[in-house]
Design brief:
Chain lengths: ~280, ~325, ~290
């Protein structure tokens, strides 16, 4: 089994917990508690949860966009939470995030080409001369024409913007990609395009991916291993090779039952057709 | 008391008629019936339901007829429309924040709706408001009734809005993505409630959604919209499991999560925006079955039996179209 | 992607585009402003008279084709003086907006971005300055420093930066939570880069729009202070000063007061037209 590229140990975060000395301790439930997981080199790990389950907090703590109150984030064996600011900043590019809302994920006053080139500039990933070609290559990689570089975000649809966000993440040449509900604000047919793109890029670039979402069926399709979250905690891990039917936790089973799916209805339809025939 | 909703040849255009958002749309919802209007964003599905309540932007150019019972809704004055909104026809929107008054306690807001349509005592209205809150899945409703909207989460506000829409016992309910913002377990409860109201109280339901499975679980008829037109309609089971329009096939295929496929099916490209829509089949550029006939002129709806109709000249070829017709190299497309 | 946005990072002159793409109020406002500025700059070609030289034989002449707005008690052509005065008054407006805008934006950006005690401290200072009436504070500072235009600019800057700081701080607080700013942090960008490249261009347009209404206010404050003898000094032509000098003739020779008074009103109107137009554009942009 390959070594984990990323691990979290007992990760915890409580919002609004900081208080002045004269205030009573507020009874705020933690947004994230005791989150321990590992992401293996080159795998897709699925995280499923509903709103308030702590899945976005988990994503932000792993990317160190939120400082976890407790626990560690180990990237290639190094604890990121202990690093001083400057050292952390140099490591950040290895763990990239694709956010949920493609409409607020791009600077409205920055051209696409500048957005991508800025990443290379800051990290010295391409010389000025190489930048143009690299931008064009990145855009092509996500299925956009090179001419997109000259435009502002407002010229693009939601699906196209999400492709640009993926290109921006790839510009940093990351090792881990966190996709935090990357398709839930897109239309059904566009969702499929973006999911396929992510699957493709993962294979071609050897990325390790954490794919977060609320759609159990979709996550189960994408990810061999799936973690189920509820109330800030990991309640179940579905191991590789298991199917949703093997889920043991009551909550996972309730989720499965509550989702209307066409498969369930298909069975009912066939039954009614047979009855009509008879 | 319940009256049917009927839309005939509705066309809505913007920008002085240059951008047709909805073209020649006709549909019908009888009392006790549930019709699902399915489509992606920009297909015109939300606009159609708003038109029925007279909630169109001032610059919209509307033609056609919308009738509720024997009233022509497009001819009513704003005052007359206001009078039928609530009790005869009500609407649930996707965005709950805009329709709740921030300084009114939610219990009072629901009671007010009840009392403005029926003469009942304060206590009775209050009791029914709490009962409704319970039915939409709000725990300890008696306590929560005294809270203000900002004290609720987005999902809870959505449920309160649903309770308000149902408070006046409307004969016809228009629900525009009513559960999209909700978690699946809550969603299941709301869908069950809507289904009960329809079956037990004869409420008509027009459910607008992009989620085929949600629509399928609630509706006996389905109309699929694409680029401002209805492209397929019929009984829910027929449309979902024996589709005769390639777009419906593609839409269904993109919801399949079978592990035997390495990729999700997807329809290449994206729908044409209003103003860019061709005068022939609007799906032609994305269709795996496209031929020259498809680009010869406007395509009418064709009857394919048992009340199912599809806007396609090749309906006979559609059943042989498999999911694999929509699985492609994701880099070849442009969303 | 609009002209306003592109004007902010100073990428060449985009004025013609602003005129083409803006609303009517913006187009008319900018066109009229252009006329006023050109008239001020090319004043010697607009009018044959000297704004300062005395000509006592022609004192207090009513308006005529020879003297469009009449002459004052020292025989100077009122129209000429109004046109020349625009040089000083527009300068008061422009500098009175630019300096506080720059200072306030920097302070607001820092307060909003870093938060914590920095923000608390700056917030208190802002509250204290706002608690005083604007005009009283400006007059007090100028009175302390001594009359003159430079001191007027110092006073305007010291007082009105807080308004810009408050606007930019609020915008920054909201933008800080935007996902593109999170993405910038995620990409390992430094604070300065995030503040200047990703937050500032998006936070400054509302401050810019406010600056337009502030411009009109500053012109009026400049005129008011000159009226009290604290701004421009005679014999320099300045609208407020002209009104102050001629106030005793308000009834006998009203044209001496109406000329500069009208100029203040017109410039204020033109500026508010531009401000409205810009506000529309900013609103339409962030959808």
């Amino acid at each position: 089994m390959p070594d984990p590229i990323l691990q979290t140990v007992d990760l915890g975060k409580t919002y609004g917990a900081r208080r002045r000395f004269w205030q009573k301790p507020a009874n705020v439930p933690p947004a994230l508690a005791d989150a321990t997981l590992e992401l293996r080199q080159g795998e897709i790990l699925g995280v499923v949860g509903e709103s308030g389950s702590g899945k976005t907090t988990l994503a932000r703590c792993i990317a160190l966009l939120e400082r976890p109150d407790t626990g560690r984030v180990l990237f290639e064996g190094e604890d990121l939470t202990k690093l001083p600011e400057a050292a952390l900043r140099r490591r950040r590019r290895y763990i990239q995030t694709v956010f949920q809302d493609p409409y607020s994920s791009l600077n409205p006053r920055q051209r696409i080409g500048d957005t991508l080139a800025e990443v290379m500039l800051v990290h010295g990933l391409a010389s000025r001369g190489e930048q143009r070609d690299r931008v064009a290559a990145l855009l092509e990689q996500v299925g956009l024409p090179a001419t997109a570089a000259a435009n502002f975000p407002s010229a693009f649809s939601g699906g196209q913007r999400q492709r640009i966000c993926i290109a921006r993440a790839l510009a940093a040449e990351p090792k881990v990609l966190i996709a935090d509900e990357p398709v839930s604000s897109l239309d059904v047919s566009v969702q499929a395009q973006i999911v396929n793109l992510l699957l493709d890029l993962k294979e071609r670039l050897g990325l390790s991916v954490i794919f977060i979402g609320h759609d159990l069926q979709l996550i189960n399709f994408i990810a061999p291993r799936v973690i189920v979250m509820l109330g800030g905690r990991i309640v179940e891990t579905l191991p590789e090779g298991s199917s949703l039917a093997d889920a043991k936790h009551d909550y996972t089973r309730a989720l499965l039952q509550a989702v209307p799916t066409l498969e369930k209805l298909d069975a009912a339809y066939r039954l009614s057709q047979q009855q009509n025939m008879a | 008391m319940a009256e049917g909703l009927r839309i005939d040849n509705l066309t809505i255009a913007f920008d002085r008629g240059r951008q047709e958002a909805i073209s020649d749309l006709s549909l019908q919802v009888s009392p006790g019936e549930a019709l699902g209007l399915v489509g992606e964003s920009g297909s015109g599905k939300s606009l159609a339901s708003r038109a029925a309540l007279g909630l169109l932007p001032a610059n919209a150019k509307v033609s056609g007829r919308i009738t509720l019972g024997d009233r022509s809704l497009l001819d009513l004055s704003p005052g007359q429309l206001q009078a039928i909104r609530g009790s005869r026809i009500a609407m649930i929107f996707q965005d709950p924040m805009s329709s709740l008054n921030p300084v009114v306690r939610v219990g009072d807001a629901i009671s007010q709706v009840i009392r403005s349509h029926e003469t009942v005592s304060r206590g009775e209205a209050r009791r029914r408001a709490i009962e409704l809150m319970e039915r939409v899945g709000i725990r300890s409703p008696a306590e929560r009734a005294t809270s203000y909207p900002h004290e609720f989460s987005g999902g809870m506000r959505q449920r309160i809005m649903i309770a308000m829409a149902l408070a006046a016992r409307p004969g016809m309910l228009l629900a525009d993505e009513p559960t999209t913002a909700l978690d699946v377990i809550v969603q299941a409860g709301i869908l069950r409630l809507l289904d009960e109201l329809r079956r037990n109280e004869g409420m008509g339901l027009l459910l607008v959604s992009h989620d085929l499975a949600v629509v399928a679980s609630l509706c006996d008829h389905i109309a699929v919209m694409y680029a401002g037109q209805i492209v397929e309609e019929g009984r829910a089971g027929d449309v979902l499991f024996r589709p005769r329009m390639p777009y419906t096939v593609g839409l269904l295929a993109s919801t399949q999560r079978s592990k035997s496929l390495r990729r999700l099916a997807s329809i290449p490209g994206r729908p044409p925006a209003p103003g860019e829509r061709p005068n022939h089949c609007r799906f032609a550029d994305r269709c795996p079955l496209v031929t020259d006939t498809c680009r010869a002129g406007p395509i009418p709806m064709f009857d394919v039996g048992e009340g199912q109709r599809a806007r396609c000249v090749r309906t006979d070829k559609v059943p042989s179209l498999g999911t694999d017709a929509f699985v492609r190299d994701p880099l070849a497309v442009d969303a | 992607m609009t002209a306003v946005a592109n004007n902010v990072p100073a990428r060449g002159i985009r004025l013609p585009r602003l005129l083409r793409s803006g609303s009517w109020s913006l187009r008319i406002g900018v066109a009229l402003m252009l006329v006023i500025v050109l008239a001020a700059v090319f004043a010697p070609w607009v009018t044959p008279y000297d704004p300062v030289a005395l000509d006592l034989r022609n004192a207090l002449k009513p308006p005529s084709w020879k003297n469009l707005l009449g002459t004052d008690n020292l025989g100077r052509d009122v129209f000429t003086r109004v046109v020349y005065a625009a040089r000083i008054d527009l300068q008061i407006g422009a500098i009175g907006v630019a300096l506080p805008l720059i200072l306030g934006t920097m302070v607001g950006l820092i307060a909003g971005y870093f938060g914590g005690w920095v923000d608390s401290l700056i917030g208190r200072v802002i509250d204290v300055v706002i608690a005083f009436p604007f005009l009283v504070l400006v007059i007090a500072i100028v009175a302390m420093l001594g009359p003159g235009l430079i001191n007027l600019y110092v006073a305007l800057t010291l007082v009105s930066w807080v308004l810009y700081a408050r606007i930019v701080r609020g915008e920054t607080l909201a933008l800080k939570r935007r996902e593109y700013v999170l993405a910038a942090r995620n990409l390992g960008y430094g604070h300065l880069r995030i503040m200047l490249r990703h937050i500032l261009p998006n936070a400054i347009p509302p401050a810019f729009v406010f600056g337009m209404s502030d411009f009109a206010l500053d012109v009026q404050v400049g005129a008011t202070l000159s009226f009290f003898g604290l701004g421009a000094q005679p014999p320099a032509p300045e609208w407020g000063l002209m009104i102050a000098e001629s106030r005793s003739m308000l009834l006998s020779a009203p044209w001496t007061v109406i000329g500069p008074g009208l100029a203040i009103v017109v410039v204020s109107l033109v500026i508010s037209l531009i401000g409205d137009g810009l506000a529309d554009k900013v609103r339409g942009l962030d959808g």
